[in-house]
Design goal:
mainly beta; 283 residues; Immunoglobulin-like; four-stranded mixed β-sheet; single chain
């Protein structure tokens, strides 16, 4: 089909006969505060140094105000194999990319790993796979060479980079709050600027955001986006819990590729941010 003909068909489909609106036109969806579904999202996959692969997942909570809790089980499960693959059970509002990964072996081949969520009576599934067109550069931006921030929960401990991130643990006894400390550093490479070439950061362009990821009760942070000390990379906040139990809190570390806008990282791209998961036992 020629380009001019294609545009003509599109124009007719939009305007209808004699310039009248076509029946195909639909009103924009009405925003809902609550009562809507949560859609799992497969972001793509990337290779790991040991030969395994990481399948990156996120989600879209269609509600504008309602945050949902969906425990692992029939309404929040992976298939085949174990239902629990480290997915969230607390879902913040709107779109969130690269929230967690599932690592699969180097012989995964053409198999699929499907994540299913049921919320407000609506069940939606998404398969993860290793199709070549879904490979992403989650650990290095190909245009600028930018890499994700490095996160540690101990200054000399294991570091994490990218959606797979790193994890830590803590224990607290109510009514005390848990002190959450992380060390965050970056390569200081910016995404490509308008003038061409890689730009070096001028001033702070690195941040973190904390959010509840799993747990039986409400979590309140003293500061959800605490500042990072430029000299040491240290950042600290506290978390209070409404009830005892086992919790997971997510630390999202972002760099110059972009901070979270409505939860969407890196302006829709798949690099460069890092997840940290703090497991907290509340007694």
């Amino acid at each position: 089909m020629k380009t001019s003909t294609w545009f003509g068909v599109c124009a007719l489909a939009t305007l209808g006969v004699a310039g009248r609106p076509s029946a195909q036109l639909r009103d924009a969806p009405i925003p809902h505060a609550g009562g809507q579904s949560v859609t799992p999202s497969f972001e793509g996959w990337y290779s790991n140094a040991d030969g395994s692969f990481s399948l990156s997942f996120g989600y879209m909570n269609r509600n504008y105000k309602e945050e949902l809790d969906i425990p692992v089980g029939v309404n929040n499960r992976f298939e085949p194999g174990p239902s629990d693959r480290g997915q969230p059970t607390h879902f913040l509002t709107r779109r969130h990319t690269g929230v967690f990964v599932v690592v699969v072996p180097n012989d995964f081949g053409d198999r699929k790993l499907t994540w299913t969520l049921t919320a407000h009576g609506q069940t939606i599934s998404i398969p993860g796979h290793l199709r070549p067109e879904w490979q992403i550069d989650a650990l290095k931006d190909i245009a600028s060479g930018n890499t994700p921030a490095v996160v540690r929960f101990d200054p000399s401990g294991v570091q994490g980079q990218g959606p797979g991130g790193t994890s830590g643990s803590a224990t607290v006894t109510l009514p005390a709050a848990a002190t959450l400390t992380a060390w965050v550093t970056d390569d200081r490479v910016r995404k490509r600027g308008q003038g061409g070439g890689d730009e070096r950061r001028r001033g702070p362009d690195l941040g973190v955001v904390w959010s509840p990821y799993r747990g039986p009760g409400k979590v309140t942070f003293s500061d959800v986006a605490p500042k990072i000390d430029e000299a040491t990379g240290k950042t600290t906040t506290t978390a209070s819990f409404s009830t005892p139990g086992d919790y997971v809190l997510r630390l999202l570390a972002w760099d110059s590729s972009g901070g979270p806008a409505n939860g969407i990282m890196a302006v829709g791209f798949q690099c460069c941010w890092t997840n940290g998961y703090m497991r907290v036992t509340v007694r």
